[in-house]
């Protein structure tokens, strides 16, 4: 039945901007979004120019990826913090298709649409058509609700794949850094052929390009280290890439590098179906990788700032963005972690910052782009290489994976080596194959055991399996059973089901409690909250606060600090000053992992979330002996999560719980029912 409410929900689902714009705080957020938008826009300009080199197309077309897709994502995207635009791995994958269909040497592919076009125009046509096709794939997957597909791209696979891509990118930029003319190669062993061509011409290196690149890399790396070391003191990171770009433009223009020294510069802004058929196979992995990277980054920021992102809507948003961008000859768009970090760290609250960054790019395209014409391409190559540091440093995880999880290590190494030597598309397929093999191997050969009745213990079974039998849940205790291994593909499902079972989100409860304690301390200092014989009471009526302050969100995730409070807060009772915190109706949680035969690295990270329960005074106990050794080897236990939470059976855990939380008698339950009506707000500390 079509109702107005259903139509409204559908509109908000398809156009998330309707939802968040209604709650947009112009007074608190607009200035932050403006500052973030300008900072991100400047970075987007430089990265757009640099990443277009990876796609083997004229540099200016990289700017279109920082404008057209951003406009569409502003209306359709669910993430408030990612910066949409070019991404080096995607640009390199596009470049492989471009150089295959329009090689540097020899004739282009037999495509009717190429007739009458220059080689540069042919390459732009291939890039734009591929971007459009990527958008069609993403939009189709979004409409078919298959956003779950990214679950099968594990952290290990993505890490190995992006490391291999970083190696490809590094090799591809050598020709710009050294000032050489190296033809583009594609397909298996293309990296070997590229290195062979580079070293064959190494004596022809352009010294001016080399010196310029070395100076830029040293300066950018040095200042980036300063930014990392003093990030707590710097409100905005020093935009060293922008500074060095401006200096390089000035020096190149003053000494006429292009004419006098043969330096290749950016130059002026330039004022079909057959392509689709030949690029369709390549477009699908590009669509998957682009979405997987963007969704992973978006998920990080959604957790940090406590809002929800929709995987299927993100597919629709990126699909529409790439279709729109492809129509205007844009590069395939995703997100870059470094650019998104700039947008978030400079105070960006919503995609208004992204829209403003697109406006900055538009100003460059239409107004001041001529100032970048003398920019040497070697500077862009140096910037690209410096930004590979994070991806290349992922190789240090290999020894850790080998010691802690060898199947994951095999996936990482296999994906990385296959992508380096066979190409990114084949490497991704090899990685998926290896990953599926490890899952099949682990799931097909679980650690089996024979169960037996332990004398003097009770049996715990699912209530749904015993409809006609008297069965009850222990008061204040929730028992949650996992009947399968826990790994990257089901860890999010496990966490969601656990929240559904207990009836609340522990992280949200923790944040609300920390905010409540901060507010009580603040009111105590102001004298608006006083201590009476009945607990804490407000001196005057106060409005109910529902706003969610996103500032210092990381501090709200820490254990609650009750220091400076004269009493112990009773979270089960009404709180003073109209402070609202959702109640927690359990005191203990038992996780039955007796059927869990293995955990991977992604699961270990996810299980750390039990700290959120511990921090809201819910005791957590784990039943199962198979995984304790793995947890100990991976240093899972700390000051909050101790080995003492493990028990051999559920009944052993219940006996321990009943000692610390004795079950209430019938008379005590009756007294509690009447006592709740007159309960104190807070009780004095012992």
UniProtKB/TrEMBL annotation:
<feature type="transmembrane region" description="Helical">
    <location>
        <begin position="236"/>
        <end position="255"/>
    </location>
</feature>
<dbReference type="Pfam" id="PF01740">
    <property type="entry name" value="STAS"/>
</dbReference>
<feature type="transmembrane region" description="Helical">
    <location>
        <begin position="34"/>
        <end position="53"/>
    </location>
</feature>
<feature type="transmembrane region" description="Helical">
    <location>
        <begin position="352"/>
        <end position="372"/>
    </location>
</feature>
<feature type="transmembrane region" description="Helical">
    <location>
        <begin position="82"/>
        <end position="103"/>
    </location>
</feature>
<feature type="transmembrane region" description="Helical">
    <location>
        <begin position="378"/>
        <end position="402"/>
    </location>
</feature>
<feature type="transmembrane region" description="Helical">
    <location>
        <begin position="207"/>
        <end position="224"/>
    </location>
</feature>
<keyword id="KW-0812">Transmembrane</keyword>
<feature type="transmembrane region" description="Helical">
    <location>
        <begin position="275"/>
        <end position="298"/>
    </location>
</feature>
<keyword id="KW-1133">Transmembrane helix</keyword>
<dbReference type="GO" id="GO:0055085">
    <property type="term" value="P:transmembrane transport"/>
</dbReference>
<dbReference type="InterPro" id="IPR001902">
    <property type="entry name" value="SLC26A/SulP_fam"/>
</dbReference>
<dbReference type="InterPro" id="IPR011547">
    <property type="entry name" value="SLC26A/SulP_dom"/>
</dbReference>
<protein>
    <submittedName>
        <fullName>Solute carrier family 26 member 3, tandem duplicate 2</fullName>
    </submittedName>
</protein>
<dbReference type="InterPro" id="IPR036513">
    <property type="entry name" value="STAS_dom_sf"/>
</dbReference>
<feature type="transmembrane region" description="Helical">
    <location>
        <begin position="60"/>
        <end position="76"/>
    </location>
</feature>
<feature type="transmembrane region" description="Helical">
    <location>
        <begin position="409"/>
        <end position="434"/>
    </location>
</feature>
<feature type="domain" description="STAS">
    <location>
        <begin position="467"/>
        <end position="657"/>
    </location>
</feature>
<keyword id="KW-0472">Membrane</keyword>
<dbReference type="Pfam" id="PF00916">
    <property type="entry name" value="Sulfate_transp"/>
</dbReference>
<feature type="transmembrane region" description="Helical">
    <location>
        <begin position="124"/>
        <end position="143"/>
    </location>
</feature>
<dbReference type="GO" id="GO:0016020">
    <property type="term" value="C:membrane"/>
</dbReference>
<dbReference type="InterPro" id="IPR002645">
    <property type="entry name" value="STAS_dom"/>
</dbReference>
């Amino acid at each position: 039945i079509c109702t107005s409410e259903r139509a409204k929900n559908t509109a908000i689902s398809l156009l998330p901007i309707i939802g968040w714009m209604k709650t947009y705080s112009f007074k608190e957020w607009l200035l932050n979004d403006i500052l973030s938008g300008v900072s991100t826009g400047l970075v987007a300009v430089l990265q757009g120019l640099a990443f277009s080199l990876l796609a083997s197309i004229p540099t200016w077309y990289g700017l279109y990826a920082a404008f057209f897709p951003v406009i569409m994502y502003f209306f359709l995207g669910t993430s408030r913090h990612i910066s949409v635009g070019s991404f080096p791995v995607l640009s390199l994958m596009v470049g492989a298709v471009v150089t295959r269909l329009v090689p540097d040497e020899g004739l282009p592919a037999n495509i009717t649409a190429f007739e009458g076009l220059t080689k540069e125009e042919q390459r732009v046509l291939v890039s734009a058509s591929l971007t459009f096709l990527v958008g069609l794939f993403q939009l189709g997957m979004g409409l078919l609700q298959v956003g779950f597909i990214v679950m099968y791209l594990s952290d290990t696979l993505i890490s190995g794949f992006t490391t291999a891509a970083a190696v490809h990118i590094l090799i591809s930029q050598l020709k710009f850094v050294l000032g050489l003319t190296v033809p583009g190669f594609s397909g298996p062993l293309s990296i070997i052929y590229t290195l062979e061509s580079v070293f064959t011409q190494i004596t022809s290196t352009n010294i001016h390009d080399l010196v310029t690149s070395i100076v830029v890399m040293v300066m950018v790396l040095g200042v980036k280290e300063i930014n990392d070391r003093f990030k707590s003191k710097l409100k905005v990171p020093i935009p060293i890439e922008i500074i060095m770009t401006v200096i390089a433009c000035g020096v190149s223009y003053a000494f006429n590098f292009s004419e006098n020294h043969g330096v290749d510069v950016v130059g002026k802004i330039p004022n079909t179906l057959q392509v689709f058929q030949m690029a369709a196979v390549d477009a699908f992995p590009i669509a998957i990788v682009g979405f997987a990277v963007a969704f992973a980054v978006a998920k990080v920021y959604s957790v940090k700032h406590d809002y929800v992102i929709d995987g299927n809507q993100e597919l629709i948003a990126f699909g529409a963005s790439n279709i729109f961008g492809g129509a205007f000859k844009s590069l395939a768009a995703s997100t870059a972690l470094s650019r998104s970090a700039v947008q978030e760290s400079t105070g960006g609250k919503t995609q208004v910052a992204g829209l403003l960054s697109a406006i900055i790019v538009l100003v460059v395209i239409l107004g001041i782009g001529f100032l970048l014409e003398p920019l040497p391409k070697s500077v862009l190559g140096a910037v690209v290489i410096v930004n590979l540091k994070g991806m290349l440093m992922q190789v240090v995880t290999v020894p850790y994976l080998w010691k802690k999880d060898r199947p994951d290590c095999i996936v990482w190494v296999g994906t990385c080596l296959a992508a380096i030597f066979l190409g990114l598309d084949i490497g991704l397929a090899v990685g998926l194959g290896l990953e599926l093999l490890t899952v099949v191997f682990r799931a097909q050969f679980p650690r089996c055991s024979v169960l037996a009745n332990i004398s003097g213990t009770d049996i715990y079974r699912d209530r749904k399996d015993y409809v006609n039998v008297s069965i009850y849940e222990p008061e204040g205790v929730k028992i949650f059973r996992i009947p399968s291994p826990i790994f990257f593909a089901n860890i999010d499902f496990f966490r969601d089901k656990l929240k559904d079972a207990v009836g609340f989100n522990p992280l949200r409860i923790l944040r609300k409690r920390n905010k409540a304690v901060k507010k009580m301390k603040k009111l105590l200092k102001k004298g608006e909250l006083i201590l009476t014989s009945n607990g804490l009471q407000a001196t005057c009526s106060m409005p109910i606060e529902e706003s969610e302050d996103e500032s210092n969100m990381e501090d709200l995730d820490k254990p609650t600090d009750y220091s400076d409070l004269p009493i112990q807060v009773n979270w089960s009772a009404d709180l003073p000053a109209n402070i609202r915190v959702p109640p927690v109706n359990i005191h203990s949680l038992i996780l039955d992992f007796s059927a869990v035969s293995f955990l991977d690295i992604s699961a270990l990270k996810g299980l750390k979330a039990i700290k959120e329960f511990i921090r809201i005074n819910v005791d957590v106990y784990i039943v199962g002996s198979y995984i304790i050794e793995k947890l100990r080897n991976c240093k899972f236990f700390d000051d909050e999560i101790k080995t003492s939470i493990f028990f051999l059976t559920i009944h052993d855990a219940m006996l321990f719980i009943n000692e610390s939380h004795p079950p209430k008698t019938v008379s005590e339950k009756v007294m509690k029912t009447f006592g709740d009506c007159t309960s104190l707000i807070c009780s004095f500390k012992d």
